[in-house]
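Quick check before the chapter quiz. The format below is the same one you will see on the exam, so make sure you can read both the input and the output lines.
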Amino acid sequence: MAAEGGAQRAAFGLYFAISYGIGSIWLAVTGLIIDRWGFHASFLVMAGSFVASALVIAFFGTSRESPEKPAPQRGAPGRDILAT
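Here is the expected output.
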């Protein structure tokens, strides 16, 4: 069941707050790795984390059926907004 109205906006805000927080922590961790072991080790850690996240998404992500095509919105009478 999809979130509606205010709950949907709150979930979207929470998603971005968490993603920016994790991003700033990840930047600090990457800097520490560069300081201690160099750029090569940092790139290996980043590549490994991207592969790990792709595997998590591949195994635990949900697939959705393609949504139905939404009805075109109407502008002036007899004219579609989406028409070219």
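If your answer matched, good. The chain has a mean pLDDT of 80.
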